[in-house]
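Action item from last week, closing it out:
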Amino acid sequence: MKQSLLRGIAAMALLGGTMTATAAVSADLVFPVGEDSKFNWASYEEFANKYDLSGQSLTVFGPFTGDESALIENVAAYFAAATGATVAYAGSDSFEQQIVIDTQAGSAANIAAFPQPGLAADLASKGLLTALPDGMDQWVVDNYAAGQSWVDLGTYANQNGQDEFYGFFYKVDLKSLVWYSPDNFEDAGYEIPESLEELKALTDQIVADGETPWCIGLGSGAATGWPATDWVEEMMLRTQPPSLYDSWVSNETPFTDERIVAAIEEFGAFALNEDYVDGGVVSVGSTDFRDSPKGLFTSPPKCYMHRQASFIPAFFPEGTELGVDVDFFYFPAYESKDLGKPVLGAGVLYAITNPSPAANAFMDFLTTPIAHELWMAQGGFLTPYKEANVEAYASDALRGQGEILLNATTFRFDASDLMPGKIGAGSFWTGMVDYVGGKPATEVAAEIQATWDALK
C-alpha cells in the first residue's frame, strides 16, 4: 500500500501524473550495441547467441506508466533485438487490482512486475504464478549483495503449501538514507557519522551548538503517519536480528513485545525531543513529509538532517543540485550491536504470470549485467547485482545509493507494506500519529496489536 502510494506521489511530482500506458516495444536501441565501454556488451552477445525466439511474443505488465514506462521498454528492446521476439509492455496505475483480475481470468501477461511481495505471494498461494526456472534462487544468493534476503522476499508457498521461488527483484528503492547539506556540515565542522552511536552524538553536538538537528514530518493526507513507520522499521533492523524483524512482520512476535516497543521508543528518542526537531514535537505530526526537508535549504538552516527514502529529491526546491546543494549518507547501524549494515527499502519483483519459453528467456535476460546497466544509465534504477558496473549509473547520487545496496549485509522490505492493509496502512500509521501526540508506546503497541488480533 505505502509503496504504491509513494510511487504515485513521486510519479506525479516528476511526471505530472500518468494513467494507463500500452505500447509495443520499439526496435530502436537507446545505446548502440558495443559502443560504450561502461556496458557489459559481452553479456548481451552471450545472451543473444543463446536464444532464437523469432516469431514468438512476450507481454509484460507492470506499474510503470508515462516516462517511467519508456525506461522498461528501452530495456526490453534489447531483449527483442537479441532474441527476435516481439515484446509488448502495458503499464497501469491500477496494477494491483488489474493483475488479480487478469490472473483469475487466465488472461494475464507473460510477465508481471509487482511492487509488493504480499500481492505476489497471495497469487502464488492460489496457483496463479509459475515458479521461476531452476537455479535462479541460487543465482540470486551468489550474485546479489545480501542475496539470501532477496531470495526470501521472492519465495512463497504454492497452492499445496510448498515454498517455491517466484519473484526476481529487478529495480530497488532505498530508504536507509539521511539527507544533509554539505555546505552546512562543512561550515559547522561536522563529519558524516559512521555508526548510530556517532549519529546520536552528532545530534547532541548540533543542539549544544545552538542549532536544530532534524526535520521530521509525518503528514501525508489520509496516509499521515507512514514516515514514522519507516523510522521504526529502521530501528528494528538496528536493534534486533533480521529474524525478529521477520517474525514481527508476520505477527509471530506481537507489537506488544518489549523489543518492538523499544524500537518505537528509539524513534521517539529523536522525534519526541523538543530540542531535536525543527518546530518542536508539535510539528512532527502536523508537517507534511513533502515540506519537511525544506528546512535543510533555508539560510540559516532550520535543521541539518532529514531521514527519508531515495525518492525525496522530487520534493526538494526547484534547481537543487544533488551532490552540491544536498547529499546523503547511509543511516548507520549501532556499532555495539554487531548487526552489520542492514538496509531498509522496497522494490519491484518480476514473476511469471503466463508461462512460455519467451517468459523464461526474459527472466534469464534479467540475470545479465547488461539488463541492469541499461536501466542504470537511464536513471531511476538501483540494483544489488554485484556484477553490474556501478559506472553505468546515470548520476553520482544513484551510484552512491547503489554502493550502499552493494555494501548491505541484510536487506529487508518495508514492513508496513508486508503487513495486512488494516495494520500496515491503518493502525500502524495512526498509532504513530498518536505516539508523537503524546500517547505512550506501550499503549500504541497494544492498540495496533488489537487490530491484528481482530483479524485472526
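Closing note: Confidence is low (pLDDT under 50) at residues 9-21.
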